[in-house]
């Protein structure tokens, strides 16, 4: 079976959560694929150079892709189209997979909305797909409200590869508090800054806060790995998430993780993180103080994180993709 992957997320510049999770899964999938998969890469996007993946140039722009991708799929003789986003070309006659990462407009407290056209486009893509993937039970339940046939929904959590080096002992972590992600309102940067200021009123020795992400401090994967290796703790206090890849990355690196008490974070971390109410600045401040100074807690979370993250290996993602490809191509 020949599978074509839509590289649309790679057209948005440096890789963020969606593109990172897609490339992690694609590397694992290509490593064991019987036939080389095809990556339909938008012209001008950076080639991720994945061994075993055939790269074919694809057009940029939503309308051009709608018109050109069906022809490209015929040209490469793909049996299945796998889209890592919810944006399928509606004229495709091949069995297709769409991926829904989050649906913020369905949550009143997400702080984000979409235009009516954007909502319609997502709904049409999901309904046109032979299978729809969601990375968390929370997002899967939200997607059920848009689909008539919920049997097409599949839970496929994102994966993370274990770090190349062993985790750093929590007693040797002297870097900043690290928060990964962009500056959208849902990422809650203002409350996190205010919480650190409150916590420092009681303990002036608490570390600085580093926000790593666009627009002002985008870091590549190597720089992110260095930050993860040295940070004092990971602080992810978003108001809304469809999954929460930074939390999973923190667990894999053996970092004490402080995160928002959200359903997807609970699904990922279980008891391997410290949870706080992301709308309560005082609660975040207390969490920051504890995650930095409670040695027993830090040791417990650092030990539990990699064990928890082992359930989210990229090979599991690749195996799930392969099963779903085979099922929809029958």
The overall average pLDDT, rounded, is: 94
Structural class by secondary-structure content: alpha/beta
What oligomeric assembly is this protein in? single chain
CATH topology of the largest domain: Rossmann fold
* SS strand fraction: 5-15%
CATH architecture of the largest domain: 3-Layer(aba) Sandwich
Task: Classify the helix fraction into a percent range.
Answer: 40-55%
CATH class of the largest domain: Alpha Beta
Q: Output the number of helix runs.
A: 11
Q: State the major sheet.
A: 7 strands, parallel
Which homologous superfamily in CATH is the superfamily of the largest domain? Glycogen Phosphorylase B
Question: How would you summarize this macromolecular structure in one to three sentences?
Answer:
With 330 residues, the chain is of the alpha/beta class. Helix content is 40%, strand content 14%. The strands form two sheets. A seven-stranded parallel β-sheet has the order 3-2-1-4-5-6-7, sandwiched between helices. A five-stranded parallel β-sheet has the order 9-8-10-11-12, with helices on both faces.
